[in-house]
Structures are given as structure tokens and as C-alpha cells.
């Protein structure tokens, strides 16, 4: 008699416990939602070193910037390829790619912000589009991510066509000039108008006006992108299911002619929020409701 020992010797895969720091972040998100503080990050940001004008080449025109950009994208693409291969980043489906493919002008791309990898997701979709090789995608990031974020992420933050914000007036002047130049020459800028990162938060948050002001000023559309999530059957090292992303690219929102700049931005912001709200309710099959008492506004006049 032959006994198959293979099954007996196989070790049962251990499921890691849910990481205490992730559980703390989820509790903080609940608290922030109850308090209506949607624009506050749920995790502690690294300390911010002031970004001075000579520390950043926004348009990446200096010879050293060009070389670092090429190297950074080579590293980033290999890194994302590995994430996808190991199923740590799962882009399950992309809807509405034609809206991205058909854009002829520059555009502000808006996206909900719930994970550092959502930037990689938008970048990879851009690389799969018909716009790749003839246009560039810039990404607005916070000051501290550019000036003092360590390791691999720090290198990518500084060199992969990023546009860091700054508390320095001269640097911000250069930032605003770069935004205008990028949009007017026909390239794209990714902006997170929620102005905060809440880990795996599925609802759209109220939006700030900044992204829509940039679009209106430069007479370009906003391209709303909303990423929905589903639990996969794989558990990450933090003990939580790895998420599978369904990416919805929406029809571009164009500025309404004749409106004052403030009203024009608010109109585009409201339409963007309504699109995200409809996608959320349609995908998850539930109404969009917040635990915040009295929350009914979709945005703020703050940039």
C-alpha cells in the first residue's frame, strides 16, 4: 500500500494578525469622518523641510534633472511591474479609457486618494493609454514627500515628474508658473482634490477648489477618475485583504464660459463630486452617507 504523504507534510499557511498600526489608522479615519475633518491625513506625515526655489526643477529641464527622471522612471516601472506580478497591486478593470485617449488638450486629472499605490495605478493606466509617448503626466505632491522622504519612495517623489507644493512664496510662484506651462502645452497633471489620504477609504470625500481653479484658468478640462475597491482572497502582511481596483475614468468636465473664476471652479468641483458619488453608489450598491452630522456640501473654497 502506498501512502501519499504530500498532504500531511504541507504546512498550513498562517494568516498574519491585523497590524495594530493599521487598526489605529482605521479608528482615526472614523473619528475624522465624525468630526467632518475630511482634509486631514489619518496618518502622521514625516516632518517637512522647507522647499526652497533652487531645490526643485519643476519642468525637469536641467541636464541633471533629465538624467534623474529617466533613471527614476526605469526604477519605478520595474517596481510597479513587481507589485503587479506579486499581486500586491491589482488593477482588475478599467472603464472609460476612451475619455483619456480622446483628450486633445492638456487636462487636470482628479482621483480619490486612499493608498500610496493609487498614484502607481493612475500612472500605469496612463502608460497603457494612447496618450503615452506623446504627453507627460505630472503629479502634485506634498512638500515633505519631496524634501525629506527616505529611500526608494523619496527618490521617486523627487524625480518622477512631481510638482511639490511649498510653504515658501517664491517656490509656490514657480509651482504655479509650472502648472500653467504644463497644462497650456498639452500635458496632464494628477491632483488629489480631497487633500488627504485615508487608507482604503471607499467613499468620495469633499473636494477642494484648487484643481478646478487650475483647469479653469488654463481653459482645459478636468478628467475625473474614481477608483473602487474589492477585497481579494489574498491577505497582505498587515493582515488585511489586498484590494482589487476597478478604475472609472469619466467624461471630461469643461469650464463653463462666462462664469467668474470662483464660480467656474465651484461648478466643476460640484460636477466632479456628483460623478464620483454616482459611481460610488452604483458600484457598492449603497447610498453615500457620512457619519458627520450636517455634512451635505461637496467641497470647500480652500485650495
Describe, in plain words, how this protein is organized in 3D:
The protein has 303 residues and is an alpha/beta fold. 41% of the residues lie in helices and 17% in strands. It has helices at residues 6-9, 20-35, 63-85, 97-101, 117-128, 143-147, 151-159, 169-184, 210-218, 261-284; strands at residues 90-95, 107-111, 137-141, 162-164, 188-191, 207-208, 222-235, 241-249, 299-300. The longest helix is centred in the C-terminal third of the chain and has 24 residues, at 261-284. 35% of the residues are buried.
Give a short overview.
With 303 residues, the protein is α/β, with parallel strands linked by helices. The protein is built from ten helices and nine strands.
Reconstruct the topology from this structure:
Layout: H1 6-9, H2 20-35, H3 63-85, E1 90-95, H4 97-101, E2 107-111, H5 117-128, E3 137-141, H6 143-147, H7 151-159, E4 162-164, H8 169-184, E5 188-191, E6 207-208, H9 210-218, E7 222-235, E8 241-249, H10 261-284, E9 299-300
Parallel strand pairs: 1-8, 2-5, 2-7, 3-4, 3-5, 6-9
Antiparallel strand pairs: 7-8
Helix pairs in contact: 8-9, 9-10
Amino acid at each position: 500500500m502506498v501512502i501519499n504523504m504530500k498532504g500531511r507534510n504541507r504546512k498550513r499557511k498562517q494568516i498574519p494578525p491585523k497590524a495594530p498600526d493599521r487598526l489605529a489608522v482605521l479608528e482615526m479615519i472614523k473619528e475624522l469622518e465624525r468630526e467632518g475633518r475630511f482634509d486631514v491625513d489619518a496618518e502622521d506625515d514625516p516632518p517637512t523641510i522647507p522647499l526652497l526655489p533652487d531645490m526643485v526643477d519643476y519642468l525637469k529641464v536641467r541636464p541633471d534633472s533629465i538624467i534623474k527622471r529617466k533613471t527614476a522612471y526605469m526604477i519605478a516601472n520595474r517596481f510597479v511591474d513587481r507589485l503587479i506580478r506579486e499581486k500586491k497591486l491589482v488593477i482588475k478593470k478599467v472603464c472609460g479609457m476612451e475619455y483619456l485617449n480622446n483628450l486633445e488638450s492638456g487636462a487636470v486629472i482628479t482621483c480619490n486618494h486612499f493608498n500610496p499605490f493609487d498614484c502607481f495605478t493612475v500612472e500605469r493606466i496612463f502608460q497603457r493609454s494612447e496618450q503615452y509617448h506623446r504627453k507627460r503626466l505630472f503629479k502634485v505632491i506634498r512638500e515633505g514627500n519631496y524634501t525629506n522622504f527616505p529611500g526608494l519612495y523619496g527618490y521617486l517623489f523627487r524625480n518622477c515628474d512631481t510638482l511639490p507644493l511649498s510653504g515658501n512664496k517664491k517656490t509656490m510662484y514657480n509651482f504655479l508658473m509650472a502648472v500653467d506651462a504644463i497644462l497650456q502645452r498639452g500635458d496632464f497633471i494628477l491632483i488629489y482634490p480631497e487633500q488627504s489620504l485615508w487608507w482604503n477609504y471607499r467613499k468620495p470625500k469633499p473636494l477642494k477648489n484648487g484643481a478646478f481653479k487650475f483647469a479653469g484658468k488654463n481653459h482645459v478640462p478636468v478628467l475625473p477618475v474614481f477608483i473602487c475597491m474589492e477585497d481579494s482572497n489574498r491577505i497582505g502582511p498587515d493582515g488585511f485583504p489586498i484590494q482589487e481596483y476597478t478604475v472609472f475614468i469619466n467624461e471630461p468636465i469643461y469650464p463653463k464660459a462666462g462664469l467668474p473664476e470662483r464660480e467656474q471652479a465651484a461648478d466643476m468641483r460640484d460636477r466632479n463630486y456628483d460623478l464620483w458619488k454616482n459611481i460610488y453608489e452604483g458600484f457598492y450598491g449603497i447610498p453615500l452617507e457620512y457619519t458627520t452630522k450636517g455634512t451635505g456640501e461637496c467641497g470647500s473654497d480652500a485650495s
